[in-house]
Batch of 3 targets.
Target 1
Amino acid sequence: MRPSFDEMHANSATVREHYQTYDRWLAQQPRDVMKARREEAEMIFRRVGITFAVYGDKDSGEGTERLIPFDLIPRVIPAGEWCEMEKGLRQRVTALNRFIHDVYHGQEILKAGLIPSEQITRNAQFRPEMMGVDVPRDLYSHIAGIDIVRAANPDGSGSYYVLEDNLRVPSGVSYMLENRKMMMRLFPDLFSDHRVAPVAHYPDLLLETLRSVAPGGVNDPTVVVLTPGMHNSAYFEHAFLAQQMGVELVEGQDLYMKDGFVFMRTTQGPKRVDVIYRRLDDDFLDPKVFRKDSTLGCAGLVEAYKAGNVTLSNAIGTGIADDKSIYPYVPKMIEFYLGEKPILNNVPTYLCRVEDDLKYVLDHLGELVVKEVHGAGGYGMLVGPAATKAEIEDFRAHLVTNPSNYIAQPTLSLSTCPTFVESGVAPRHIDLRPFVLSGAEVQMVPGGLTRVALKEGSLVVNSSQGGGTKDTWVLED
């Protein structure tokens, strides 16, 4: 594995140009002052209630509330790099929305033989209930979180790659917003020295996007955020976004159907709902159509949705495009639907359902990262170089038993960024999740959520696996 690309240092003696002002500032900060700032940030986050649930036993449903660790040292991206990444994100999300519409309508990409039909029709995320259903603007994923990593090239430069497409209920944007507020509170002088592009207008863009996909003929749509409830790991974000947009936060029990429309109960009486930003999976939306034991959704919701009387963001069935077994085909989608070459490349990926790919993966398990196609949160995966022989052999048995359930990728050495840890400032591996909004237009705020693997040498940035977050600065010049 090549040495990591360091975001701040070109080599041990050279700081990259876009980090030089910050580097001079950091060199003047006493360690005890930085430590005090970190403790202040933790106290404020705890007081505000910015926590998430960590589930020790996934089957028990029991978890503990924990702060996501916040790092004081920002990840800085120069304007030119962001401009190119933004173009790539617009291109990718546009193609993915075209693909989802095609899957539930003409299936032209399957007829062209670019994706095997069984990859769609046998996929757990495919929803036959959506076949032929038209949705506003033909858009399915109104809010997408695209995970991007940077790896070193032989010449020492770094290249960005898309690691995952999160198109169902991507989370984390509240931490992006709160991290920025915290940095501006703790270090206001830094923002007078740097022209950092703002992110605070994200809730306005989100509301604008949601209103733009309301059912036809609705001039002043009522938007709500649908949460599974306060025990959900991302409940803080649900409440935060509803409050920031100035809309109601509702649970399934607050909604009901009447005459083919969805209404919510309010203290002023029933109010029709036009757009639901739902933060729960398809399976729990409507007990009449999906899981009959679900108490989290609203009975009859799918009927109103298919009739065009309410918009769901994101749409039912969107998960077909963020399944890891579909990810390898996204470059072909971009060429098929847009007639363009991908601006952002995928990580090379082996499909274990393909015999030759499986043979290679089994022969090189110690070098690869192997993931469940439906896995999330860093679970259900093998990081070969960090695994024991026993773990590798145990995973091999799973692979042989059910190869179609896995993909594999080379172990990328994610780029590193200086991070304030107990021993001082040290490099830690990071990724980036920009949030792309698709409505009347495709738009996003500059940057996104930078996640950092706080354990030395770890490549797993997920908060559920001990990762933290950083503020992401996109410089305006």
Note: The chain has a mean pLDDT of 92.
Target 2
Amino acid sequence: MNGRRIQGSLLTGGTQATLRAICNRTRHPRVGSILIAPNLEAGLYDAIVAASAVVCGEGGQTGHMQSLCRGRGIPVLRVDEADLAALVGEVTLDLENGSILLDPDPAAGPLPARGTATPTAEDLGAACAVIADFQDIRTVNSCGPNAKCVDSFFIREEFLCLAAGLSPLDALDGGPDERARYGQAIAERLVAFVEELLPDQRLILRLLDLRSDHAASVTEQAPVAVEPNPELGLHGARWLLGSTPYRDALHSVLDTLRTRLGDQAARIHLSVPFLNDADEYAQLRAHLELPPTVPLSAFIETPAAVHATPQICAAGASELFVGVKDLVQFYLAADRGNHLVADSYQTRHPAVLDGVRRVVEAARAAGTPVRVFSLGADLTHYLAQLATPDGYMMCTAELVQVLRA
């Protein structure tokens, strides 16, 4: 193949060694295209999920939209922002070498898929699949007998909103009727997910965790604060604690689920995002006015939560999920979305693994189920270095590679 080559850095991989398609420089979905964007933000959701690949000018491996791509097997390549202007028409992504070839040879076909991961389904324990829509459930459950090791599916509420075209802050700011409609819309999406589950599987809904920079891209009317550092700003448990409208919307979700699913509504569990300690957990459960029968798990993704794990378990957390991607950036002071500090963002750093190990050991001592998120590239290392959790969490595309190995 001849032509100019642009060198980049592969943030998430796919299943092909090369990929050729037409560039999409708009914000609108073009099925099978290569989306070209300066950065990946929530407002591009529809364009991202329709793309066969994404090329961006900034961002890290574990940003929220990059994680969405990883879960769906959509490769993401980062190049110098100045090189984006050259990406027009048809181009070829050389994913093996992390580069883009302009003016490709039309006769060149894709190379065979790359090898699968070394670990097997048995290594995953009670696995949890990180999903973006119900198609991901179908993909996992089509993996034959090994699909039985996946007992839960994890979905972010904000991803449900993006897929359904909902603007959560506008709805919550719109009065009781709008909040009720928002809750009903979320519940109907969840009902469709439950219909795809195998008999022993359940669904984990991570409650709304919309950072201000992401909220601004999907909000039309509600005021959104401008924060100098949204990652450390008003989101997660601290935002949920201050929102009475969200509590009302969540009750609309739960009421609709009970009406639509009856006893099957118990297959949907809730999880608290971005939690610091047991006091926040207890306050949030009380603030949300959750019935005792509704399980509420906790995400451990800050150093404070690592050290508070025994107390969070004692406060009644139904299970724990260790959010390694956020732990890395907070332990190492390296923004996971900033490619300029990519060398400092190390998912296998000893300090990070020590924190994860503490959470696993404390949860096991308390009898609280605990699962650890892992990138596919890290799974073998984590299996060797960590005390055995109850299971691992993985994005769909990477998990499927293990299930089919």
Note: Residues 121-403 form a domain with the TIM Barrel fold (CATH 3.20.20.60).
Target 3
Amino acid sequence: MKLSKSIIHTALTLSLITVPVISGCSNEAASSGEHKKASSSKKNELKSQVKEMQGSLHQLQDSLQEKNEEQVKEYGKRLNKQWLSYENNIREKYPLLYTDTEKYLLPLYAEVTKDNYNSSKVQQLSVDLDRSLTNLEKAKETTQKTTEVLDTAVKKYKTYVDEQTEALVKSTKTFNDAVRANDTQKAKEAYAEARVYYERIEPIAESFGDLDPKIDARENDVEGEWTGFHRIEKALWKDGSLKDMKKYADQLDQDVAELQKKVQGVKLNPTQIVAGSMELLNEAAISKVTGEEERYSHIDLVDLASNVEGSQAVYHAVLPVLNEKNKDLAQDLDTEFNKITALLEEHKKSGAYLDYKKLTKPQVRELSQQLNTLSESMAQTAEIFQ
């Protein structure tokens, strides 16, 4: 309806405008009503989907209390299947709640599918997931300016980095306490966990001058005295002795504590966090996939998975902007992250990653190719800042 043309007509034709105006308004009202109905229908559909997931989760919790492992696994699989059916719509409309739900659902599913899952861990994750689903059920669509969403993305990622660094400090101390106690077996077990937290935030750690080499350098990578994780790794897996390792354990605790202090004061921007995500994937695809990173312990799959998780944290942080700017890219990234995660899961046995030496050349090549594909997709997120 174009009133501007009608206005230039004579008074004779003015009377004729009445009908189309009323008709037009009626059509607009009808259209608005249909839109509201559609919106309400989708909202009700979301609530129904969330309630269905909550039902499966509560059944899982009941089975957990009854110590029925078979049912816990069954409900865990059902919960994951339901989420995969609903997640695309949720990702688009409620990206922040989507990432919060995945934060607990994915590790819950990974845990219950292990041969021997940790009941306490499953219980805590189920409680956190229940809270996330409740928030999702009450969700309201909101609109923000791109700059505001980017600011939120940076804050979200900064929170993630702070959490990972805090966990790094604690897990490194557990590792070093075992080293100082000359407990080789406990030190080996604690080593992998500490590496997870470092590898997730490696690009941030590398930005602080010589801290990264002190913490993470491999043999022959630095001039002067060699310190850090890999120095003790060699003592554990190659030398078979923790003799004289106390000073390296003490130094590693100090360096990780210094890293946490610097991280707390760091200022990040969207370009930095996306660049860091790409850096994680590129390094994983080019150098870490060769098995050089963990040359004595051969837990390279732990490092690769952690790099992917760190990069995925960036993807989750910028997802609201991707949904606004490039929904197809958001979908592609979700698909690629799922592919590499599934591929890594294939190299697990009894819930633990295999010794990297046991992978065949075609398997290593497949990992490298998928990491490269994911890195290329992640690189396209640069367009959201243009």
Note: Strands lie at 348-349, 352-353.
